[in-house]
Amino acid sequence: MTKMKIALINTSEQNGGAAVACNRLASALRQEGIDVISIVRDKSTEDPYVLSVDKNFFSHILFFIRFCWERLVIFINNGFCKPNLFKVSIANTGSDISKLKEIANVDVIHIHWINQGFLSLKDIEKLKKLGKPIVLTLHDMWYSTGICHHSFGCSNFESGCGHCYLINSSKENDISRTIFKKKMNILSGNVKFISVSFWLDNMVQKSLITKRTKHSVIPNAIDTNLFYPKNKLSCRTQLGLPPEKKIILMGAANLNDENKGLAFLIEALNLLDNKNILLVLFGNLKEPGLVSSLKTDFRLMGNISSIATIVTLYNASDITAVPSKYETFGQTLTESMACGVPTIAFDNSGTTDIINHKSNGYLAKYPDVKDFANGIRWILFESDYNKLCTNARIKISSNFTSEIIAKKHIDVYRQLL
How is the chain split into domains, by residue range? Predict the structure, then answer.
């Protein structure tokens, strides 16, 4: 039997949640005997199965110009408002990959996150015209809205967008509506949508773009052979963390991102005011002053690229906290729980697919910081902690392993062929 050939398309090979998810999917599919090529703009490794379309100095300059051109158009349309500049994308420029021989050789084209000048909507349209099945995974809401990656409570995407507050627009026919109409035309027909959580799928099915399309919900995969429980004390010794403290872990690529909710966590910990608690942060924190009001001790670990180190850090912790305002999925949750470490998050987004309240973690009422503090207290001092740890690992092993997620994708691909 001929091997099924799949192209996974994402802006970056490694940077960002969608890149991590796409990488893990590629590995999982290969383990199931699928021939996978990943096509990216930003390649970080020497992986022979990853093709970068940014191959030389001139293409690099061209992509930079495209990136700047998109941001300039947004900047003009939002009244030169810098704060929301990267909360929207318009995909007005990109690279035509439809003529690549690697695309010609595959059976299914699986598109992930393609913004910041990698693919334009016209480039997606050209891929559609090849007549190959198109699968499109939503890692945020962008494919179902006009221009925003998250609606932030706005419901305009349910009726065609316009009056976009992220670009300070009072116009009905603003750029958000223009892009919405383009997506309506391009993303209809031969496109299969996959949402990474039931919460996200529920949101996108409200959109005029995606409500009448074919849908599946398939979460992101995690390799439970890489993320697994280890001895807590030895992990703390290895990282130089105190053995006697109760350690709360939080990580994000950008801890300054307001959505990630570091301010919520600091407020919750201050309510607890427990000197035996240590907050450990990993990721980029450009403004360390954010933690200046914290009453408990904290440790900044910086950016961590080594999976082995991240696994050790999870295992050294007592709780992983994800205080985000919303998470379309929550890979930090699955990574932590795969290591047998309970998690806490708010109950208003994709986190509800992962955490079972008071079974393997705690779901606090959003945006109740007091309940978040109560959840931390409950996990640390009132729960059957060992049972929580066991249940956390079981939840991941039963629902999110590489094998389970790969087979769900293969079923989707086969249905389209």
Answer: 5-221+402-416, 232-399
